[in-house]
Write a structure and sequence with these properties.
The chain has 439 residues and is an alpha/beta fold. It is 38% helix and 16% strand. The protein folds into two domains: 295 residues, Rossmann fold; 109 residues, Dihydrodipicolinate Reductase, domain 2 (2-Layer Sandwich). The mean pLDDT is 95. Bound molecules: nicotinamide-adenine-dinucleotide (NAD). The site of nicotinamide-adenine-dinucleotide has 37 residues, from helix 1, strand 2, helix 12 and helix 15. Nicotinamide-adenine-dinucleotide binds next to helix 1, strand 2, helix 12 and helix 15.
Length: 439
């Protein structure tokens, strides 16, 4: 029987507005996908909120409701969308250019996608070197631009009739930058916005505007964005949930499946070489070494945290871990990743694993966007605020409280996510001890 009181969760009444900075391949595949599913043209494959169940109680009880029947989530029919981009293309035109979905499907959704026109973006070419576009906000200071985004938020809420909003960054990867003085406190950040401090990236202007407006925020790219003390402070003040960063799809998803398995069996790893070819706009942006550096950081960090060389020096000391991304236009969004893993077993005998993943980046990312939107909205209605570590499952570089190392093992992340849902509903957490079945 349940041992704790359920958390009070406000019902998911009315429409949920989804606001997307960056209406490129991922953004449009998500929006078009939701519309296709609503029209019965496809299934939400890859989405936990739509397809997964949670076991409740003992294995003998046979209780495994769908997540969406256990907790009150916004229904797909209640989602409405808005976005920002530096290009003026409607979501229809952007989806055609992205070339992820088949033209015949996009054409069936043309009426809805044509109605979604991106609002002018907050953009700084110093943060994304390979792109430039005409649809950008004027304004003397970054604070003017943050005010303009907050006005966009209010206007969209009024025009769409949404009762709640969520913002999710699906914009390009920004160049690598480290936390600097204006990121250290909210006061310093606001001063930096007024003084146009070059350390403040455009994605941070959106994140500031969202959190200041009490709109939950997720970051799908590896940028610093909301992962700085100033914005954590703001989220606390406005009691707003947020999370990031960098959607865990493709090669890193595979890595976080395989590495915990090797460690579970105490098999050693000598080296892990990962390379990719990718031909979409994301690939073009990542062809810039400074943008790649941002990506490399989240991609490289996972193995160290999973393998824990400090606990297992005989197995995982000095693992040679290399990651490459090559921009190769013919492939478009259909990325191909190769991994060569040099492992060793009993008495140190060497073995190799080769993984060749022919994936579709945005097809893998779209269901993560959906889940993050619905779970962040749930978190807000459940009174949860600040960093949502239970959503680590979706990220290559999960954000955590200061001083806490991130959990990268996808199976631990999944258990954390499902136990959080059980906790919300006052259900027993599942420990998998199971001794009671043998009493
Ligand atoms: N597809 C995946 O599997 C995956 C996985 C992890 C992370 N990501 C990240 O998600 C992001 C989106 O990926 P994508 O494939 O859709 O890329 P994309 O290039 O197709 O789309 C990004 C869009 O963002 C726009 N943009 C750039 N700066 C902006 C700004 N300041 N304001 C508003 N719009 C801006 C660009 O014009 C572009 O249309 C990238 O950062 C990517 O690294 C994608």
């Amino acid at each position: 029987m349940p041992t704790q009181e359920p958390v009070k969760i406000a019902p998911a009444e009315g429409k949920l507005g989804v606001m997307i900075p960056g209406m490129g391949a991922v953004g449009t595949t998500f929006v078009a996908g939701v519309e296709a599913i609503r029209r019965g043209l496809g299934k939400p494959v890859g989405s936990l909120t739509q397809m997964a169940t949670v076991r409740l109680g003992k294995r003998t009880e046979g209780r495994s409701p769908l997540i969406k029947d256990l907790v009150p989530l916004a229904s797909l029919d209640d989602l409405v969308f808005a976005g920002w981009d530096i290009f003026e293309d409607t979501a229809y035109e952007a989806a055609v250019k992205a070339g992820v979905l088949e033209r015949t499907l996009i054409d069936q959704l043309k009426d809805m996608l044509t109605g979604l026109k991106p609002m002018p973006a907050v953009f700084d070419p110093n943060y994304v070197h390979r792109l430039s576009g005409p649809n950008v906000k004027p304004g003397n200071t970054l604070m003017d631009k943050a005010d303009a985004v907050m006005q966009d938020i209010r206007d969209f809420k009024a025009s769409s009739g949404a009762s709640r909003l969520v913002m999710i960054w699906c914009g390009s990867t920004e160049v690598h930058h480290k936390p600097a003085a204006p990121h250290m406190s909210l006061a310093a950040f606001e001063e930096g916005l007024c003084k146009n401090d070059p350390n403040i990236a455009p994605s941070q202007v959106y994140s500031y505007a969202a959190l200041k407006s009490g709109v939950p925020f997720a970051n799908g790219a590896p940028n610093l964005t909301n992962d700085v003390p100033a914005l954590a402070e703001l989220a606390k003040i406005t009691e707003t949930p947020h999370c990031g960063k960098d959607f865990k799809t493709g090669q890193t998803f595979m890595k976080t499946l395989v590495a915990p398995g090797l460690k579970a069996r105490m098999l050693g790893v000598q080296g892990w070489f990962s390379t990719n070819i990718l031909g979409n706009r994301d690939g073009e942006v990542l062809d810039d070494p400074e943008a790649f550096k941002t990506k490399e950081e989240t991609k490289l960090s996972v193995l160290d945290y999973i393998l824990q060389p400090q606990l297992y020096p005989d197995l995982y000391t000095n693992v040679c871990h290399e990651v490459r991304i090559n921009y190769y236009p013919p492939r478009g969004d259909a990325k191909e990743g190769w991994d060569n893993v040099d492992i060793f077993g009993w008495l140190g005998y060497p073995m190799q694993i080769k993984i060749n993943f022919l994936c579709r980046d945005s097809i893998l990312a779209a269901p993560l966007v959906l889940d993050l939107v619905l779970f962040l909205d749930l978190a807000q209605r459940a009174g949860m605020r600040g960093i949502q570590e239970w959503l680590s499952f979706y990220f290559k570089g999960p954000m955590t409280a200061p001083g806490l190392y991130p959990e990268h093992d996808i199976f631990i992340q999944l258990m954390k996510l499902k136990n959080t849902l059980r906790w919300m509903k006052g259900e027993d957490l599942i420990t998998h001890l199971g001794l009671e079945y043998y009493d």
